[in-house]
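May I ask for whichever protein you like with its backbone structure tokens?
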Amino acid sequence: MPTTATAAHAFADVTASDSTLRRFLHGLPGVDAVGLEARAASLGTRSIKTTAKAYAIDLAISMIDLTTLEGADTPGKVRALAAKAVHPDPTDRATPTTAAVCVYPDMVATAKAAVAGSGVKVASVATAFPAGRAALPVKLADTADAIAAGADEIDMVIDRGAFLAGHYLKVYEQIAAIKAECGDRARLKVIFETGELSTYDNIRRASWLGMMAGADFIKTSTGKVAVNATPANTLLMLEAVRDFRAQTGVQIGVKPAGGIRNTKEAIKFLVLVNETVGEDWLDNHWFRFGASSLLNDLLMQRQKLATGRYSGPDYVTVD
């Protein structure tokens, strides 16, 4: 399968200068905002029942990056989160593990030890998360520290100020440099903070910029601003990865993050995936949910399907 390096080579002429990169990004088709939002809303009305719903719930659980990104995080909190990732429902060992736990770089070693042998990945935010406002050597050091501690995945943030000022080549070169630091040791998720990009056209441009620079995943948000993942901005990013694969043969993952709190919402996103990019992306190698509270609701709904009733308030842990 072609790799992100293949894609970077394919776009070498486009990324040769700020002017050529600007010309390419501003030459992408404009986004029909009304049409985009209408399609996202329409797909969100699909009804998923019984066995299909049970499958969707287990799939959604397996796609979660269980996340704690607070200044008050402690080793004990991270170990508890990791235990929940490995055994989301201790009363039912058939419950899938989550895809990953996502923590700050200084908590990577703790998380890595806690999930050892389980198949759960350790993701780490890096590159001056959540603002992304730091010099490149600082971002590279942040990334290197996380990988050295055992991170399987790096969630980096772009410099939105540079992007919005039109300094596309600077953003491209930073993503490419972080990807080079990751090498084949860690997959790279590139966070756009879509709520700060102002327009759908900017989200489309950021998506292509990230993919051309070597992102393994493109991700909506940090979860630290008012507007995070929405059906519309996720649909737009799914269309981008679909078109990118059609042009280059390279498949890129998508991660909506922030604001997805219940089973009904998660299933709507899975419908978006299935209807836009198809079954190739219905796997946690290619689609993730950045969430913390979502898992509890999925577990409650899973138990309801199994027993016919909702469990009491102590059935799931309070994160």
